[in-house]
Amino acid sequence: MSNQLLRVSGLSAGTEDKPILHDVSLAVGAGETHVLMGPNGAGKSTLGHVIMGDPAYQVSSGTIEFDGKDVTEDAADKRSLAGIFLSYQAPVEVPGVPLYSYLRTITQKRPELKMTARKFRARVGEIADQLDMGSSFLTRELNVGFSGGEKKKIEMLQLLLLRPKLAILDETDSGLDVDALSVVSRGIETYRADCDGALLVITHNTRILERLKVDRTHVMVQGHLVAEGPASLIDSIDEHGFEQFEKASAVAGGERA
Amino acid sequence: MSERTEKRTQVADVDRSLYDFTYSEEGYERYEDGLTPDIVRAISEKKDEPQWMLEMRLAALDTYHAKEMAPNWGPSIAGLDMDHISTYVSPRTKQAKSWEDVPDDIKNTFERLGIPEAERESLAGVGAQYDSEIVYHNMREEVAKDGVVYTTIEDALHDPQWEPVVHEYFGTLIPPADHKFAALHYAVWSGGSFVYVPAGVTVEYPLQSYFRLNAEGAGQFEHTLIIVEEGADLHFIEGCSAPKYYEANLHAGAVELFVKDGARLRYSTIENWSKNMYNLNTKRARVGADAKMEWVSGSFGSHVSYLYPTTILQGARSSCEFSGITFAGATQDLDTGCKVILNGPHTTASMDTKSISKDGGCNTFRSSVVIGRRAEGARATVSCQSLMLDDISRSDTIPAMDVRNATASVGHEATIGRISDDTVLYLMSRGCTEAEARTMVVGGFANPVSKELPLEYAVEMNNLIKLEMEGAIG
């Protein structure tokens, strides 16, 4: 197991006044696709944010290792440059910052993506086409005035441009209509195929997973990882919901108390 | 590389020394500090002025002495001791038409500020003032052929064709009795620009005047008089900067803009006075029927500013747009804003201002909208957005409205915001350092103003933002 890309070990974290994650351990190998499921409020997004390095959460114990290095103390920008990517559930709007120049800036932060302005333009155009984004997207301001679906496409655009080793997709499928969902799914497939990147897909419904070959499924309830299994676990959740795990969590919580 | 070093490197491409350099005043003509009729006479005599101008100066000096020193509102100007401000400092050089003829130290100053380069590439004419006198003035020949005049007030006063025009307009829009520092201005004014655009002429490239105050403990009192005749069109840019000194410097210029019927004037300013400057400047425009006045303003420098460009929409259907941004950092108290007086029927005014405060800087935005009795159907909107970068800075908005016509409408909105943690996280999680993320947000905030500027100036403004954001955290 030493060749794991991401290794979360015994991680407990939360906000200043509220613990959210309890003793979470999980490992994702290079190029693998993992799914993190669980009911609303289970702490799935928090885990994604803590792996990315969101300072809103404090780690009280445990470690996060990425690519063989302990990144638990690193700021988000260092983790990003190391190859972690988080696609947000609700990407923020940044008024006045043109999308295109923003993309150029974040690409230039990565020596491995060094390319001429001309090549960059072509590359962005190519990805925008793949994601059914008109070229007018690029002259607009970062996420400003875009619909939920369009914002998710912009997240996918950055994912394909930055080619991270690990992409955490936080509810990327939520609130999308069928067309947008199909484009986003295509983006994820392209990332898998082109970058051989690992995925940690956070979701509470299973539709986005229909087109993905899933290696492992993790279930989180009330901040605990309560189950881990192969892709077939998804089908079981589809059928029975999370109730079975919630009971297990209640027992686990009781033991702890 | 440590975290700290990384934060510093992202602004390393902005050279602090760009504005912060000085040259010796050796051999310069510097008048005694303080204000006496003798100094006023000496300035006037040196300029070999018409009698009416000397009389105007002396009358203004009386007005200056008669008025109370400190305004009882706004930032303190107690640090400004007029007895220790030299009102006239002249480099010993004649005004040149070629940069080759400008003395090296002064030429180097403007080279470093990029003025000759901008002139070659994108300007129709340039005037450069160093301390109290214009040291360089030139305009493209084709512009002169259209009858456009771009010169100094001093030269216009020596030209029999233009002396009556200056006499007719000078001091009429901003009278010497307007306020104490207007009176001071008229007593000791020196340098500045006279621009005349004949009816129907469109000046394709902007004209630019650059004001550089090199001398310590001195004042700069340039006068800008622009007349844009009927149906004509002009873009005028003013730039200002000064190196940092410990002694107070004073800038009390006056800008009088006459925009005739159907004409358009855009007046852009990039101001980066040093942080020991008292910027007590007055700008005013009078706009004729169907004419348009556009202000674009970026203010970064000065210790204390009192600055409220004023537009009088006199003619029917005339309009005014104002976009401005001020940036107040440590030790800065900037009281700025804009005023518009809508007198003509169906006049419209739109003011969009932004302010950024950090490291304990204070921004006060004052807007004043006056709608006169005759202004049927006049419309004015004021929007003021403030961005606070920390808890120790301050931002206030003080709108005033005086509406005397029942058919007019006025709108006002003000917002004060901070850079959200979510935004910083978003940008950091894509690889930007925290400082870069904040700089990007601030640049975006300023973008609606900087995109109104010609490209090179937008770049300069973005560089100033980066420079001001240096060390904004940690």
In short:
The complex is a heterodimer of chains A (257) and B (474). Helices cover 37% and strands 26% of the residues of chain A.
Give an overview in words.
The complex is a heterodimer of chains A (257) and B (474). By secondary structure, chain A is an alpha/beta fold. Chain A has one domain (4-256): 3-Layer(aba) Sandwich (Rossmann fold), CATH 3.40.50.300. Chain A is built from 8 helices and 10 strands. In chain A, the strands form 2 sheets. Chain A has a 6-stranded mixed beta sheet with strand order 6-7-8-3-9-10, sandwiched between helices. In chain A, strands 2-1-4-5 form a 4-stranded antiparallel beta sheet, covered by helices on one side. The longest helix of chain A is centred in the last third of the chain and has 18 residues, at 178-195. Chain A is globular. Chain B is built from 12 helices and 25 strands. Residues 1-16 of chain B have low confidence and may be disordered. Chain B has 474 residues and is an alpha/beta fold. The two termini of chain B are 16 Å apart. Chain B folds into 2 domains: 1-25 and 422-474, no CATH class; 26-421, no CATH class. Chain B has helices at 3-9, 37-46, 51-66, 104-112, 115-122, 141-145, 153-157, 163-169, 180-188, 421-428, 434-450, 455-469; strands at residues 29-30, 89-90, 125-130, 133-139, 149-151, 192-197, 207-212, 219-220, 223-228, 233-241, 249-251, 254-259, 264-272, 277-280, 282-287, 292-299, 304-307, 310-313, 319-328, 333-342, 348-357, 362-371, 379-388, 394-403, 409-418. In chain B, a hairpin with a 2-residue loop joins strand 3 and strand 4 (133-139). Chain B is 24% helix and 34% strand. The A-B interface holds A 52-56, 75-77, 79-81, 84-86, 88, 91-92, 94-97, 102, 105-106, 109-110, 141-142, 158, 162 and B 3, 420-423, 425-434, 436-437, 440-441, 443-448.
